[in-house]
Design brief:
The complex is a heterodimer of chains A (112) and B (112). Chain A is mainly β. In chain A, 0% of the residues lie in helices and 50% in strands. Chain A contains no helices and twelve strands. Chain A is globular and about 40 Å long. The radius of gyration of chain B is 13 Å and the shape is globular. The chains are: A mainly beta (112), B mainly beta (112). At the A-B interface, strand 6, strand 10 and strand 11 of A face strand 4, strand 5 and strand 9 of B.
């Protein structure tokens, strides 16, 4: 069965600095990978997804992620963060049948 | 532009009481899901429904029942609430496991 690991529960970063949020998944025959964002007191919304094709995926709000099959990773990056990026970020993967499995989340704290 | 609608948004129960969380989507999606979100645990799948008339257990189904009433509606029932079920519950829907999950705004449940 598929699983996903987010290695960092919290990441503090200064405003306008770059950030990387890490995600590793267990290997499978076919891989679809997702990043979702949850702003305070809201539901989750899709940030970006990898289904096939180019390993570099661009999403909303200037985020991007790179699918690395050899390292079974799908890390999320942004070159310059803004205070409005303060949120919790979740990596997700299909878990077999129609299940979607989420990582435990990474809280991004933007420091002034 | 409703998307996924959950009711109620807030509920306080006493131990042993029962209640049903309602979820409806207007996007003609096949798959629907119920997750719970607890601090440090990410989102954990309770039950899901790949299509009308089918339901399957997720990671944490104990203490819950579900009904896929029709293609639009997927309800979650707590027959005898316990304090361990205090959580934020999210309903979501998608076209398929390759597709984006659309989330409701969440239902905050407290069991005393």
């Amino acid at each position: 069965a598929q699983s996903v690991t987010q290695l960092d529960s919290q990441v503090p970063v200064f405003e306008e600095a770059p950030v990387e949020l890490r995600c590793n998944y267990s290997s499978s025959v076919s891989v679809y990978l997702f990043w979702y964002v949850q702003y305070p007191n809201q539901g989750l919304q899709l940030l970006l997804k990898y289904l096939s094709g180019s390993t570099l995926v661009k999403g909303i709000n200037g985020f991007e992620a790179e699918f690395n099959k050899s390292q079974t990773s799908f890390h999320l990056r942004k070159p310059s963060v803004h205070i409005s990026d303060t949120a919790e970020y979740f990596c997700a993967v299909p878990g077999g049948d129609d299940k979607i499995i989420f990582g435990k989340g990474t809280r991004l704290h933007i420091l002034p | 532009n409703a998307g996924v609608t959950q009711t109620p948004k807030f509920q306080v129960l006493k131990t042993g009481q029962s209640m049903t969380l309602q979820c409806a989507q207007d996007m003609n999606h096949n798959s629907m899901y119920w997750y719970r979100q607890d601090p440090g645990m990410g989102l954990r799948l309770i039950y899901y429904s790949a299509s009308e008339g089918t339901t399957d257990k997720g990671e944490v189904p104990n203490g819950y029942n579900v009904s896929r009433l029709n293609k639009r509606e997927f309800s979650l029932r707590l027959e005898s609430a316990a304090p361990s079920q205090t959580s934020v519950y999210f309903c979501a829907s998608s076209v398929s496991r390759r597709g984006e999950l659309f989330f409701g705004e969440g239902s905050r449940l407290t069991v005393l």
